[in-house]
Write a structure and sequence with these properties.
- It holds the Pfam family FAD_syn.
- It is built from nine helices and 14 strands.
- By secondary structure, it is an alpha/beta fold.
- The protein has two domains: about 160 residues, HUPs (Rossmann fold); about 170 residues, Riboflavin kinase-like (Elongation Factor Tu (Ef-tu), domain 3).
- It has a six-stranded parallel β-sheet, sandwiched between helices. A six-stranded antiparallel barrel has the order 9-10-13-12-11-14.
- Helix 7 packs antiparallel against helix 8.
């Protein structure tokens, strides 16, 4: 995929088929639009193009809301590329750009800079200053400037519209299964393995990998059944026989060299211990290699329970054993949850 961060002059792509949006999360509604763009571009020998914005407009216009992103910009780029989009135009959204009227956006960006042949947007799409631009306006201006417009109906889950805000809400409540249904894949966070407090192996007899992550949207504190993916060289277990490798049949195009393992993760402050530090840690089943410094993705398959303060080490150990057993049962049952690998 070609990424364009600044349009200084008119682009020259054959028959551009364009969609516009923030696309945070690249959920099922977004995917419907991208697939339609790719299909139409193939039909007319055109170029499938997506226009997005960074930072998210809400962060510029209403920073007090503290909006957390579902995906990083790099993840969004990769996910959009997997939907068949060949060009991603990432426009810097600032106060000056926010004053651009819908008419100016259509004329200056869609027509004069991109040369849109076809515009495809979601059912409730709005744009321009004050979000006054509508799909009806887009159709009218399309007739004026000579480009066609298609509107894609939004995706639904349980009779309600799939949206980025709904995904954020589900994750904030720990409802990772609901989020996965809207995303079309398990929600994940990615980070680097760092040295932790050292309690997992010596004290609790359950070694864990502690993750340092820049992901903003973390599921609600608690214990989760997860899958853990690692890219790069193969990572063997301690004796080479006990590690359980899983390759979900519906994973999203895993790249060569990626391995996936079962595990159980804890997000929280470990209330049984007094330090109160926020931790993201995972116990990978049958895996005991030192992977400090490696990059991991935790894919959240299901929630097991809330975080809890225990009376002491024995009670905590017993609950850890139960959590591992419960996670194993869940992961055996949910082998077909797609993963972003």
């Amino acid at each position: 995929m070609e990424v364009i961060k600044r349009i200084s002059s008119k682009l020259h792509y054959p028959n551009p088929v364009v969609t516009i949006g923030n696309f945070d999360g690249v959920h099922l509604g977004h995917q419907k639009v991208f697939l339609k763009v790719a299909e139409k571009a193939a039909e007319i020998n055109g170029t499938p193009i997506a226009v997005t914005f960074a930072p998210h407009p809400v962060r510029v216009l209403a920073p007090e809301r503290g909006l957390k992103m579902i995906t990083t910009l790099e993840e969004k780029r990769e996910l959009i590329a997997r939907m068949g989009i060949e060009v991603l135009i990432c426009i810097t959204f600032d106060k000056a750009f926010s004053h651009m009227t819908p008419d100016d956006f259509i004329r200056d960006v869609l027509v004069e800079k991109i040369g849109a042949h076809w515009a495809i947007v979601g059912h409730s799409y709005s744009f321009g200053k004050g979000k006054k631009g509508t799909t009806a306006m887009l159709r009218i201006r399309g007739k004026k400037y000579g480009f066609k417009v298609s509107v894609v109906r939004y995706a639904q889950l349980h009779g309600e519209k799939v949206s980025s805000s709904r995904v954020r809400s589900a994750l904030s409540r720990g409802r990772v299964c609901e989020a996965a249904c809207m995303l079309g894949r398990a929600y994940h966070i990615e980070g680097t393995v760092v040295k932790g407090a050292g309690r997992g192996g010596p004290l609790l007899h359950t070694p864990t990998a502690n993750l340092s992550t820049s992901h903003e949207l973390i599921p609600r504190e608690g214990v989760y059944a997860v899958r853990v993916s690692m890219k790069g060289r193969p990572l063997p277990s301690g004796n080479g026989s006990e590690t359980k490798r899983i390759w979900p049949p519906f994973s999203l195009h895993p790249s060569p060299g990626t391995e996936v393992f079962d595990g159980v993760a804890n997000i929280g402050r470990n209330p049984t211990f007094p330090d109160g530090v926020m931790n993201y840690e995972v116990h990978i089943f049958g895996f005991n290699r030192n992977i400090v410094g490696e990059r991991l993705r935790l894919h959240f398959i299901d929630r097991i329970r809330d975080e809890k303060k225990f009376s002491g080490i024995p009670e905590l150990q017993e609950h850890i054993r139960r959590d591992i057993a419960t996670a194993g049962t869940i992961l055996d049952r949910k082998k077909n949850v797609p993963l972003f690998l």
